[in-house]
Amino acid sequence: MKIIAGNWKMNGTRANLIDMVTALQKVDTENNVILCVPYTMLGVKSDRNISLGAQDVSAHDHGAYTGEVSASMIADSGAKYVIVGHSERRQYHNETNDTVRQKAAAALSAGLTPIICVGETMEEKQAGKTMEIIESGVRESIPNDIDKNIIVAYEPRWAIGAGLTPTSEEIAEAHKLIADTLTAMGLSGTPVLYGASVKGSNAAEIMSIENVDGVLVGGASLKPDDFIPIITSVK
Ligand code: PEP
Asked: Under CATH, which architecture does the 3-231 domain have?
């Protein structure tokens, strides 16, 4: 069983989500399918095989934080997951590992599973800092003293939406480091997803790499014709 999570970013309508859920209900799969959609679509009815998630969460529980949405509100919509620390949040909203850790803690306290993203920029990759950034991302973005109700996503930031993917060896090396770091933190068994330019044609190969427990998919999660081949590429 793999986890196949879609990130719709700021795309789509409720009607698009209903069409996607209807299409996914016909897919014979044991994989855990998650769709992380804009807040306005979170109330759309899905079924037990398809869970909904948000793409960001406030670190605060309630109060005078205009425009923010809390973890308990996301949980109240019926959603089960929330992405935290996506590279676009880190890039456009200056989120740091500290911010991400606070948001992940807020998600956990409302009973949501945070999908915690880490990954290096092109600049960091070129400076030979990939492993350092990944390890500090994992260590600093995950709250202390938690149960295992988290998912980690490795997303090389330079590859997101760019049609680029690291080599299988690079993915294997990054995922081994993440798995070892999680073990050292007492969180062995935490699922680790790979994300960045996953599509039907590379999904099976990526998910066959050791320590890759699933994928986080951006652009190719928007249309059933692109997303379903990813879901069915693995048992
Ligand atoms: C993402 O936004 O998390 C992502 C992986 O995007 P894409 O698949 O489009 O590279």
From this structure: Alpha-Beta Barrel (3.20)
Mutate to test the pocket of ligand 1, among 155, 212, 215 (most ligand atoms within 8 A of CB): 155
The pTM (predicted TM-score) of the whole model is 0.97
Tell me how crowded residue 95 is: count the other CB atoms within 10 A of its CB: 21
The predicted-structure confidence for 161-173, as pLDDT tens digits, reads as follows 888 889 999 999 9
Q: What are the tens digits of pLDDT across the range 115-152?
A: 999 999 999 999 999 999 999 999 999 998 777 799 99
**Long-range pairs, 120-126, Cβ under 8 A, ≥24:** 120/156, 120/157, 120/158, 121/157, 121/158, 122/157, 122/158, 125/156, 125/158
Ligand 1, CB within 6 Å, residue ranges: 7, 155, 160-161, 195-198, 216-220
Distance 55 CA to ligand 1 centre (A): 12
Average pLDDT, the chain: 96
pLDDT given at position 164: 85
The Cα-based distances of 14 to 44, 45, 212 in angstroms read 7, 10, 31
pLDDT at 49: 79
pLDDT of residue 234: 94
Domain ranges for the chain, please list them: 3-231
Q: Given the CA of residue 162, which atom of ligand 1 is nearest to it?
A: 10
Q: Name the amino acid, one letter, at 211.
A: N
How far, in Å, CA of 169 to CA of 190, rounded? 21
Annotated catalytic residues are 86, 155
